[in-house]
Design a protein that fits this description.
Layout lengths: L9 E4 L1 H15 L2 E5 L1 H5 L3 H8 L5 E4 L2 H8 L6 E3 L5 H9 L9 H8 L8 E5 L14 H11 L2 E8 L5 H17 L3 E8 L1 H5 L7 E4 L13 E12 L18 E5 L17 E4 L4 E4 L6 E5 L5 H8 L3 H17 L1
Parallel strand pairs: 2-3, 2-8, 3-4, 5-6, 6-7
Antiparallel strand pairs: 1-9, 9-10, 9-13, 10-12, 11-12
Helix pairs in contact: 5-6, 6-7, 7-8
Bound molecules: pyridoxal-5'-phosphate.
C-alpha cells in the first residue's frame, strides 16, 4: 500500500535494475566496470549503492578516504579514489586497501619511500581541464621516473567527457601513457571513460567508470521511481492554464494535479515530457486522467536522458536531486 501518512512523493530505488544496468555496461564495453559512488552514491547513499552492486561491479570509485572507509564496511572490491588530499590521505587510502590517486609530489614521494612501494598500486591522471585532481602532461616524465624506480604498479586515467574534443584528448592521453611506459613504469590499467563517452562507443581502455549510467538513460531501465499522490482532477473550461503564464489548456482537457515538484527533487521541465505539462515547486500538472490514488512520475520505462533534455539539465542533476530527497524521506 502506498502510505498516505504525509503528502510527500514516494521515491524508490530498484537494486535489481541497478545491477542489470551495471551488467549492461559490462556487456556493452567488454571491459571492467567500476561503479562511481562519489557524492554519497549520487545522493542515494554510498552504502546502499555499494550493497546493491557488491559482487557485480569490478570495483568502485570514491572521492576520498572517508568514502573508502564507508565502502570497506560493505565491499572489499578494488576501489580507486578521485582526490589527492596530501600524503597522509594517500597513506590512509593504502591502509584501507584502496588505490590512491596521486596528484601532489609530496604524496608521490611519501609512497615511493615506503618499504612496500613495489607492492603498491596507485593512479595518476592526465588533467585535461581545471577542476579535476590530475597532473599536467609536462609533469609526467618526473612522476614516471619516480614510479618506475619505486617499482609501483600504476593505473593511468583521464576523463573524456566531451565528444567534440575527445579525439584530440585521446591522442593526448596516448602520449601521456607512452611517457610512463617508455620510462619503464608497470602500467597495469588505463581508464578514461565515464557514462557519456562509454555510451558513444569509443576505445575503452581496461576499465570504465560509470556513475549516472547505473541509474538509467542510454536505453537502460530507470532504477529510480517517483510516485506522487493525486490531489486534484481538473477539466479545462477553456481558460485554465497548466502553470504560470503557460499556454491555456483547450476546453475539455483533463489534467491531474499531483503532489510532487521541484522542491522534492523532481526536475522542472521546460518542454513537455511524456504527460508532464508543468512542474511547480510542490505540485505537477499531468495531462489526462488516472483512476488511481497516485501517479508514477518516474518508473522503470522512463528515459533519464529524455527527462534531462526536457528539463535542460544534466541527468546527474536529476539523480542527485532525487537522491537528496530520497535521503530526506528515508531519514523521516
Ligand atoms: C564523477 C566521475 C565519473 C562518473 O561520471 P558519470 O558521468 O556519472 O558516469 C567518472 N570519472 C570521474 C573522474 C568522475 O569524477
Amino acid at each position: 500500500m502506498y502510505p498516505f501518512f504525509h503528502s510527500l512523493p514516494e521515491i524508490s530505488l530498484d537494486d535489481a535494475i541497478l545491477r542489470e544496468n551495471l551488467q549492461a555496461w559490462k556487456t556493452r564495453t567488454r571491459v571492467h566496470v567500476r561503479a562511481v559512488v562519489k557524492a554519497n552514491g549520487y545522493g542515494f547513499g554510498l552504502a546502499r549503492i555499494a550493497r546493491a552492486l557488491d559482487g557485480a561491479a569490478d570495483g568502485f570509485v570514491v572521492s576520498d578516504a572517508s568514502g573508502l572507509q564507508r565502502l570497506r564496511a560493505i565491499s572489499h572490491a578494488p576501489a580507486a579514489t578521485l582526490l589527492d588530499l596530501g600524503p597522509e590521505h594517500a597513506v590512509r587510502v593504502i591502509t584501507l586497501g584502496g588505490i590512491p590517486n596521486i596528484v601532489h609530489r609530496e604524496s608521490l614521494a611519501v609512497l615511493a619511500a615506503r618499504a612496500d612501494a613495489s607492492s603498491l598500486i596507485v593512479r595518476v591522471g592526465l588533467r585535461l581541464a581545471a577542476g579535476w585532481s590530475a597532473i599536467d602532461i609536462a609533469d609526467a616524465p618526473a612522476y614516471a621516473t619516480v614510479l618506475a624506480k619505486a617499482g609501483m604498479r600504476v593505473e593511468l586515467w583521464t576523463h573524456l567527457t566531451n565528444a567534440t574534443t575527445d579525439r584530440a584528448d585521446r591522442e593526448r592521453f596516448g602520449r601521456f601513457v607512452a611517457i610512463f611506459r617508455e620510462r619503464g613504469v608497470d602500467v597495469i590499467g588505463e581508464d578514461f571513460e565515464s557514462t557519456a563517452p562509454a555510451a558513444s562507443g569509443h576505445a575503452h581502455g581496461t576499465a570504465v567508470r560509470i556513475g549516472v549510467g547505473l541509474f538509467g538513460g542510454d536505453g537502460l531501465a530507470c532504477a529510480i521511481g517517483v510516485k506522487a499522490r493525486i490531489i486534484d482532477r481538473l477539466r479545462s473550461d477553456g481558460t485554465l492554464r497548466a502553470s504560470y503564464g503557460a499556454a491555456v489548456l483547450p476546453e475539455g482537457t483533463d489534467v491531474l494535479v499531483v503532489r510532487c515538484g521541484y522542491s522534492d527533487g523532481f526536475p522542472r521541465v521546460t518542454r513537455p515530457y511524456r504527460r508532464v505539462l508543468s512542474v511547480g515547486m510542490q505540485n505537477t500538472v499531468i495531462r489526462g486522467t488516472d483512476d488511481g490514488a497516485s501517479f508514477a512520475l518516474l518508473r522503470a520505462d522512463d528515459d533519464l536522458d529524455a527527462l534531462a533534455l526536457a528539463a535542460g539539465i544534466l541527468p546527474h542533476q536529476i539523480v542527485t536531486g532525487l537522491g537528496l530527497a530520497f535521503q530526506r524521506q528515508t531519514a523521516d
